[in-house]
TrEMBL record, chain A:
Species of origin: Amycolatopsis carbonis
Protein name: Uncharacterized protein
Automatic annotation (TrEMBL), chain B:
Name this protein carries in UniProt: Hydantoinase B/oxoprolinase family protein
Domain Hydantoinase B/oxoprolinase: 19-584
Lineage: Bacteria, Bacillati, Actinomycetota, Actinomycetes, Pseudonocardiales
Biological processes per GO annotation: glutathione metabolic process
Pfam families on file: Hydantoinase_B
A GO CC term attached to the entry: cytosol
Length: 88, 642
């Protein structure tokens, strides 16, 4: 028979890093031209899973347009128990 | 970007290495190839989980320089489909594509590398043309046992990867088309029922050869450039189709929560999925931040399983007409922290009953998008495979095992705009067969006593949700059982567009000292009185009568981690009901009368849930039921005013 109460533990989250004007410039983004009315505060950098595997994206949060998609680790955030093992 | 349909012939040829007609033929042919491989496996498999359940899938992927696009999938177990593109990429990249040679078969079954659970081995065959790797053809097929502490593995009570079963990192199973003995020995020294595993694996191998042969015939006829172009074309079609479907949805942020009852340690922790969907133009992002940490036992799913659930949900809801390929994910980003119960990590986050945790992912997408979809919303299904895993020994010493045959594996779906829901299928993420009763009873010391629908269990609606399935199985020998109903606290049959949710299900065992079917020579009844002496396995139940009561107490599926029974014990599974679509008060009274005639709805249920007043004898004189139109109008007005 069940306990009287059960709890839902606090969940886990993916942090979204802020990006700077300099970051966007380095990515070739011209805010006035490409995202009129937006500032660097409207962009975030974080990992995503999509077609082709894991990517670290820099994405405009309102339009979901990625201004950068760099290939991420093969297994994304998964760390295998054998990772780092040097068998040589 | 130019639509595929708007490309002129020259543009098309430059992009895909052939004319449009050839690319279409090759795309269709790739789907034919994977389907042919599956038919070959289905017809020649030995183990019940393959032969009777269709627990496998085949895919074709492109070569490494294309980043392994998955261009075709079989019309089989959908739970595999979203994992397979990453499974192939991750396996071959770790093994090293430069190490591949003609005649190889590479295997991997690690849930963290390849998705699904350890019994679902990926068998990957590289296909070479004129010395160049041009494709990878894959069969993923459930192996009856892969070791671990539970024979056949289906249990939510295993604590970590070490109890869970044998994990195979990418390795070679065939070299020069000869078995690699050490690889077979690794499996057969750790797994049970190898007399079935060996012929199954040989059948799988033969169907990989069939896939390779059919691919090479295609390449010989149309050329490698056209073949590789068709792989890209197939995935581009899926990507464009999904983008177009997304563009049709209103932009916005949609949120939902779903979950499962508990894990296999105790019932003190509930596991919740929090989903925030952001949709803008033809793009979508699904963020699972806020989801509960991984469970303490093997009810977890891996990241790639969650990816599958997202893909299946979106294909189901908004883009069902075009083939499913890896391209369907192109306009979609999934944001998912590691270490949740839908993204478990080794060694403690054991993954086995992964569909139990990703079923709520799918339902969360259904819930979140309900308002965005309007009339296109779809009701929830029965939400848990209620899978039953049992084993024992026959009098002559022969061991037996049953997996997914004698629990509540089949049940109802939710209603749609198109009509009432089916009542006997598998959960939305599966696409399997129903094992034949004759096959079960010929191979196991088990007797399937009942498979019937429970009245008033389908969510009421203009279109009615599917009815819950009630199933009784008698076990003739001593047995040990693992029973895994994981979604009994709240309705999984989500009602949509004004429809009602389906009823709650439950599971009981009737021990032979209380009810002995063999001795009594009679079935166990379904009236409320029979449950008082039953032993609850799972569900929200009245503590005295042991009947289903949403306001009752929660009985916990692993309160007894292994259910030991004497001969003549009966397990009873009642699935959840499917969700309804649209207001029940809008349902044509004549349709309600037909439901009463067919015993989906009782006379009392017709009055209570639909406001339709019916008289007569549904069981003894079903064709002469009468609707009281005046009383119905009055009752419906009362219900509408509430």
């Amino acid at each position: 028979m069940g306990a009287v109460e059960s709890s839902v533990p606090e969940g886990l989250s993916v942090p979204r890093e802020e990006v700077t004007d300099a970051d966007l410039q380095a990515l070739g983004v011209n805010l006035e031209r490409d995202f009129p009315g937006s500032t660097a505060a409207d962009f975030r950098r974080y990992p995503v899973l999509s077609e082709g595997g894991w990517f670290t994206v820099v994405k405009h949060q309102k339009t979901l347009e990625s201004v950068s998609r760099e290939t991420g680790p093969l297994l994304g955030p998964i760390v295998l128990t054998s990772d780092g093992l040097d068998v040589n | 970007m130019t639509s595929l349909k708007d490309l002129d012939d020259a543009q098309f040829a430059e992009l895909y290495g052939s004319d449009r007609f050839t690319a279409s033929v090759l795309s269709s042919r790739m789907r034919y190839i994977v389907q042919h491989m599956c038919t070959g496996l289905l017809n020649n498999a030995f183990s019940l989980i393959l032969r009777d359940w269709y627990d496998f899938a085949a895919t074709i992927s492109g070569p490494p320089e294309q980043n392994y696009p998955m261009s075709s999938v079989s019309n089989s177990l959908a739970m595999f489909l979203g994992t397979m593109s990453e499974a192939v990429r991750n396996t071959i990249e770790e093994y090293g594509p430069e190490n591949l040679e003609p005649g190889d078969v590479i295997i991997c079954n690690d849930p963290y590398r390849a998705g699904n659970h350890v019994n679902d081995i990926c068998f990957i065959r590289p296909v070479f043309h004129e010395g160049k790797l041009i494709s990878l053809v894959t069969l993923r097929a459930h192996q009856l046992d892969m070791g671990g502490v539970v024979p056949a593995g289906f249990s939510g009570t295993k604590h970590n990867v070490y109890e869970n079963g044998l994990v195979i990192a990418p390795m070679q199973l065939y070299k020069n088309d000869k078995p690699v003995k050490s690889a077979f020995n690794l499996i057969f020294d750790n797994a049970r029922f190898c007399a079935l595993l060996l012929p199954d694996i040989k059948t799988i191998y033969q169907n990989l050869l069939l896939g390779e042969k059919l691919i090479l015939e295609s390449v010989e006829r149309y050329g490698a450039e056209a073949y590789l172009g068709a792989i890209r074309y197939s995935t581009d079609v899926s990507a464009e189709s999904m983008s177009n479907a997304l563009a049709e949805l209103p932009d916005g942020v949609y949120e939902a929560e779903e979950g499962i009852d508990c894990d296999g340690v105790d019932d003190t922790v509930e596991y919740k999925i929090r989903l925030k969907i952001t949709k803008a133009a033809d793009r979508m992002e699904l963020d699972f931040s806020g989801t509960s940490p991984q469970a303490r036992t093997s009810i977890n799913a891996g990241i790639l399983d969650t990816k599958t659930a997202v893909g299946v949900a979106l294909k189901f809801l908004i883009d069902p007409a075009t083939p499913f390929t890896s391209g369907a994910y192109r306009p979609i980003d999934i944001v998912l922290p590691a270490g949740t119960f839908i993204s478990a990590t080794p060694p403690d986050g054991a993954v086995f009953l992964y569909w139990e945790s990703t079923g709520p992912v799918l339902l969360a997408v259904f819930r979140a998008l309900e308002k965005a979809l309007g009339r296109k919303a779809v009701g929830g299904d029965y939400g848990s495979l209620n899978i039953h895993n049992a084993n024992g020994v026959l009098a002559d010493g022969t061991p037996w095992v049953t997996t997914a045959q004698c629990g509540g594996e089949h049940g109802p779906w939710g209603a749609t705009e198109a009509g009432d829901a089916d009542s006997y299928s598998v959960v939305y993420q599966a696409n399997n067969l129903d094992p034949a009763t004759e096959a079960i009873e010929s191979e196991l010391p088990a007797v399937v006593l009942r498979k019937e629908y429970a009245p008033d269990s389908g969510g009421a609606g203009d279109n009615r949700g599917g009815a819950a399935v009630l199933k009784d199985t008698l076990y003739l020998t001593d047995a040990e059982h693992w029973s895994s109903p994981l979604h009994t606290k709240t309705a999984s049959g989500v009602g949509v567009y004004g429809g009602e949710a389906g009823a709650l299900g439950a599971t009981w065992v009737f021990h032979p000292d209380y009810k002995n079917v063999t001795k009594d020579k009679d079935l166990i009844g379904t009236e409320p009185e029979v449950y008082a002496g039953a032993t609850p396995v799972a569900g929200m139940l009245d503590p005295k009568t042991k009947t289903v009561d949403p306001d009752g107490e929660y009985f916990y599926f692993a309160s007894t981690p292994v259910w030991h029974t004497k001969p003549n014990a009966v397990f009873r599974y009642l699935t959840n009901g499917g969700g309804g679509w649209g207001s029940p008060l809008q349902r044509d009274p004549e349709r309600v009368r037909r439901d009463v005639r067919d015993e989906y709805v009782t006379i009392e249920g017709a009055y209570r849930d639909y406001g339709v007043v019916i008289s007569g004898d549904p069981h003894g004189d079903p064709e002469n039921l009468k609707i009281d139109q005046e009383a119905t109008a009055k009752r419906r007005a009362e219900l509408a005013a509430k």
